[in-house]
Amino acid sequence: MDALVVTKANKLNGKIKLKGAKNSILPIIAACVLTQDEVLISNCPMLSDIRNMLDIIRSLGGFAQQNGDEITVCCKNIDPSGIDKSLMKKIRSSIFILGPLLARCGEAQLSMPGGCEIGKRPIDLHLSGLRQLGVEVNEDAFGSGCQLWCKGAPKGGVVRLKYPSVGATENLMMAGALQGRTVIYGSAREPEIVDLANFLNTIGARVYGAGTGLIAVDGKKCLHGARYKPIADRIAAGTYIAAAAVSGGDIFVEGAIGDHMDATLYKFRSAGVHIEEDNGGIRAYCNGRLNAIKQTVTLPYPGFPTDMQPILVAALSTACGRSVITETLFENRFRFAYQLERMGADIVLDGSNTAIITGRKLHGADVYAQDLRGGAALTIAALAADGITMINGAEHIDRGYECIEKELDLLGANITRTKSE
Ligand code: EPZ
């Protein structure tokens, strides 16, 4: 296992250049199954989740590789029965392959996806949506050793999502990309959904209404290849802004898209961070200690994003006063708080979904990352903590941040990577 050794940071200063959004690139890689032509995706970070998604494409018989920040995928010949089921369990986003496979091949045999231990994360909305599109879905299928067996190419139809699930919206958009008209009521509205829609339109599908709660997809039989540049990663941007905030620094996040971060930037401004947006990115600077934020509730976009919740908790653990954060999307997303407490944080969990944080001085400790954004939160806290912090389980952080220690070192942090037992 890798560990990050973090020394209390002086004021972080300088410029950091954002790469493409992990949560855009993962469904876009899956969408490459919809065309036999080559697709080039640029400005991609090197992340373990992306490597796993490319392995899944290869296990289907497709070509997939990443050279630096450019990904090439070509699904000229694919065999749906070839999918590596052990790979499916490694990441949550492996479920994105279901919709495109059904659209292209009319069948899919998958195991249940894996992912961060932040909650149960069922896929019932994905499956009920596919059933509403006429797909036969069998779960816990016997004999084939898989947990999910689907038959029938979606031919369009109307789906009503009872919750604006990001993944279910994306899977259903891709399921409808090759034929018929698919209408999704109650769709999620995240910027990554709009990015996927833009990609599908670039390869020849017709997607309308992305970014709203009603999306229509007109499938086109033959989609073509493309070169595509995904949007910048708004969660990575928020993470680096938090790093500047807790260290009293002044940074410029090049490529950050303020319009995708309204709720996040509003919270940072409430905590006393100065935020300046221009067309090239976001400048964030902070003089002195953060203010507490009375109440924050995570919500589907455009509400405050759940992926920023651990990072905001870490920042507010050093603030002046008491803050309350309620998590409404995932039932087990406060686990990292127990690790923050080892650093001296004062966090009271009220039930399973509300954290009451009283800011104070933190100190270094030996802590354990248990999921991606929880690990990022520990890194942010360690920058502000007196002394040295060892963050074990750095591989969790590597799922969503490309070499976070190098990025933060560019801003003046002192972080090294080592092996831990
Ligand atoms: C995506 O996960 C993101 N992952 C998550 O980011 C993000 O936290 C989440 O959306 C919410 O914004 C990727 O895009 C790869 P959901 P997803 O379906 O699609 C429940 C990160 O750190 N639900 O919108 O899995 C679910 O349990 C990751 O980058 C069902 O009940 O999220 C959760 O409570 C973490 N049934 C809520 O909906 C379903 O079939 C939101 O889940 C699907 C979801």
Short description:
The protein is an alpha+beta fold and 421 residues long.
How would you characterize the overall build of this protein?
The chain is α+β, with helices and mostly antiparallel strands and 421 residues long. It folds into two domains: 2-18 and 232-419, UDP-n-acetylglucosamine1-carboxyvinyl-transferase, Chain, CATH 3.65.10; 22-228, Alpha-beta prism (UDP-n-acetylglucosamine1-carboxyvinyl-transferase, Chain), CATH 3.65.10.10. The protein is 30% helix and 25% strand. It contains 14 helices and 23 strands. A hairpin with a 5-residue loop joins β11 and β12 (214-218). The radius of gyration is 21 Å and the shape is globular. Ligand EPZ binds next to α1, α5, α6 and α12.
Topology, please?
Layout: E1 2-7, E2 13-17, H1 22-31, E3 38-41, H2 48-59, E4 63-67, E5 70-74, H3 85-88, H4 98-105, E6 107-110, H5 124-132, E7 136-139, E8 148-151, E9 157-160, H6 166-175, E10 181-185, H7 191-202, E11 206-208, E12 214-218, E13 226-228, H8 234-247, E14 250-254, H9 262-270, E15 274-278, E16 281-285, E17 295-297, H10 309-316, E18 322-326, H11 336-342, E19 346-350, E20 354-358, E21 366-368, H12 372-384, E22 388-392, H13 394-397, H14 404-410, E23 414-419
Parallel strand pairs: 2-14, 3-13, 9-10, 17-18, 21-22
Antiparallel strand pairs: 1-22, 1-23, 3-5, 4-5, 6-8, 7-8, 10-12, 11-12, 14-16, 15-16, 18-20, 19-20
Helix pairs in contact: 1-2, 1-7, 4-6, 5-6, 6-7, 8-12, 10-12, 11-12
Ligand EPZ binds at residues 23, 26, 92-93, 116, 119-126, 163, 165-168, 188, 306-307, 329-330, 372-373, 400.
